[in-house]
Specification:
heterodimer; A: mainly alpha; 21 helices; B: mainly alpha
């Protein structure tokens, strides 16, 4: 017990660092701190109407990630800070659960119907494409399987969940994670820029990001960079993108099972060996249930009227913006260029081809089939 | 007796995290979100 308590205490400095960066970029007015935030400061200066602002969406989420990456790569962060930084996923997951307050059951059904169909098609297609490319490139089957999980479902979580089921080596996992994260760094910059250049609506961008980006945190990041929203007018791209993202995440247990069966066949393992690590329920991301409970609570009116939003809903929206800002700062701080250099060779080529194909196809589908409004 | 440091198995993926499993992380996130919800509801009563 005391061990757990001391581990928790050790996370405080890292969390405070992420929180400080979030205040610096987002502003401290919600907390009574007289600082408008770097985003507001840049936009208020006359110089800010330059090309940089028009091309790069320099809002607080982008700045949080940018500062995170710069700090982690220019200064070697000590372990006593990194322990707190690794809690960033908790902040993102709590934010996603609270994000459920944006939806009614009607919204989930309306957005979710198309999302399930589109995501299922893309998951199956990317899985088959990556496995095929891996085979063509003579990659090891276990290495291909973890990479396929990463490109088709939800990035790093999918790789980590699939690795024991397909008996992947640690090097396979490291290569695949580095490939997915390298692609993610490029996506965070390119997706919003391309979205603006093509004049995508916030809803269309949400569909594209939720379908075409590999990792959950990055979907969240690009949606908020494209359309940050406010407490009274929530981000439309985030509302759409997160439904697509969660639809993808819930396929994780099925993909792990499919890959375990496929790789056991190629390795000639007995069926009983497959089930050891592949229980469907054990891989189910249960924080998604929290999101659905939140949708239920909002739908039955426990948090007051949705339009205009009640004070309760405004508080929750402010809170999830903070959670996302802190979590995404930590996500940036965990992107290490020296780690990304580990990506290379066949996994990088196969993963990149599959990911770029998926993003392009998703963009074509959005331009042809998705209307400007939900 | 000489202490032997356990060598990580090659097939064991190691990702540094406060939580032993992703499921524990999910439960923690659910608990924090539930706590926040209660606090928000109490604040606005």
């Amino acid at each position: 017990m005391s061990n757990k308590a001391s581990e928790l205490i050790k996370t405080i400095p890292g969390i405070l660092l992420m929180f400080t960066i979030a205040i610096f970029t987002m502003g401290g007015e919600d907390l009574g701190i007289p600082w408008p935030g770097l985003e507001a400061y840049i936009k208020s200066t006359s110089h800010s109407n330059s090309m940089i602002i028009r091309v790069l969406p320099l809002n607080y989420i982008f700045l949080c990630i940018l500062f995170g990456i710069l700090i982690a790569n220019l200064i070697k962060l000590p372990n006593w800070l990194m322990q707190g930084v690794t809690t960033s996923r908790i902040f993102i997951k709590v934010g996603v659960i609270l994000l459920g307050s944006l939806y009614s059951f009607g919204d989930v059904v309306k957005l979710g119907g198309t999302a399930i169909f589109l995501i299922l098609s893309f998951v199956v297609m990317t899985l088959i494409l990556t496995m095929w490319l891996g085979k063509k490139a003579n990659m090891d089957p276990a290495s291909t399987a973890v990479l396929a999980a990463g490109t088709s479902v939800c990035g790093v979580s999918a790789i980590v969940a699939t690795a024991p089921a397909v008996r992947a080596k640690t090097t396979d996992v490291v290569f695949s994670i580095a490939t997915i994260l390298s692609y993610g760094v490029v996506s965070i910059i390119l997706f919003p820029v391309i979205g603006k250049m093509l004049n995508l609506s916030a809803h269309q961008f949400g569909v594209w990001a939720g379908t075409g980006i590999l990792s959950s945190g990055q979907v969240l990041a690009v949606c908020l960079i494209f359309d940050p929203g406010t407490a009274t007018h929530a981000s439309v791209s985030l509302k759409t993108g997160e439904i697509y993202n969660l639809a993808r995440v819930i396929f994780l247990p099925f993909v792990v099972l499919a890959l375990a069966v496929l790789s056991s066949r190629s390795a000639n393992l007995l069926d009983e060996h497959i089930t050891i690590h592949t229980g469907l329920w054990s891989k189910f991301p249960i924080f998604v249930l929290g999101f659905l409970i939140m949708v239920f609570i909002t739908s039955v009116g426990l948090l007051g009227p949705v339009s205009p939003p009640s004070p309760e809903l405004i508080t929750i929206r402010k809170l999830y913006s903070w959670f996302f800002a802190i979590g995404l700062t930590g996500l940036g701080m965990q992107i290490s260029f020296s780690e990304l250099r580990k990506a290379g060779g066949k996994p990088l080529i196969v993963g990149s081809v599959a990911a770029v194909f998926k993003a392009l196809l998703a963009l074509i589908v959005v331009l042809l089939l998705i209307s400007e409004n939900p | 007796m000489q202490n032997r440091v356990r060598k990580p198995k090659e097939k064991e993926p190691r990702v540094f995290s406060l939580f032993a499993t992703e499921r524990m992380e999910d439960y923690t996130a659910l608990s924090i979100a539930f706590l926040i919800l209660i606090i928000v509801l109490m604040m606005h009563q």
